[in-house]
Prior knowledge:
Elements: H1 7-18, H2 27-38, H3 43-53, H4 57-66, E1 78-83, H5 86-103, E2 112-113, E3 119-124, E4 135-138, E5 141-144, H6 148-159
Parallel strand pairs: 1-3
Antiparallel strand pairs: 1-4, 2-3, 4-5
Helix pairs in contact: 2-3, 3-4
The site of FE2/S2 (inorganic) cluster has 11 residues, from helix 5.
Amino acid sequence: xxxxxxxxxxxEIERILARYxxxxxxxxxxxxxxxxxxxxxSPEVVDEVARVLELPRIHVADVVSFYxxxxxxxxxxxxxxxxxTLSCHVLGGHExxxxxxxxxxxxxxxxxxxxxxxxxxxEVECLAACGTGPVLLINGVYHEGLTVPGLKLxxxxxxxxxxxxxxxxxxxxxxxxxxxxxx
Length: 183
Ligand code: FES
């Protein structure tokens, strides 16, 4: 389905464009704007951003594929990014991941979205808080030293909330050095 910016978003785009001498520099802010509403960057969003900025589509598509903060598939209401690097792994990250995969009914998949579209799980590399593992981000917010019972309570609570897709200003995992892991 075609994507177009709303009137309010177009006003925001005007403000964004005023900050940059070159429209190309506004690529990332416009992608964030679209992702903030849609939850991900669809091919139609890429079309629209390229059209608005009068840029080649390939430029916008390259930006989306380069930065891990942009979701290229629909995500659940709450995005959970779990560090899978060694320190967190030995501090309980493995159990956290196993619990999440079971709770989200992901089957054999290492990452993905639960059938209700509430939670999306992804594994990421080091989130730079290695001494307080296991570390995970939920909607861009750090949670450190969580146990499985603690995580269960947190998710139970989140299930009842109509939280934003991504915490305002967090940009998701872009706040952290690690991006989504492959595989
Ligand atoms: S190993 Fe997990 S935050 Fe560094």
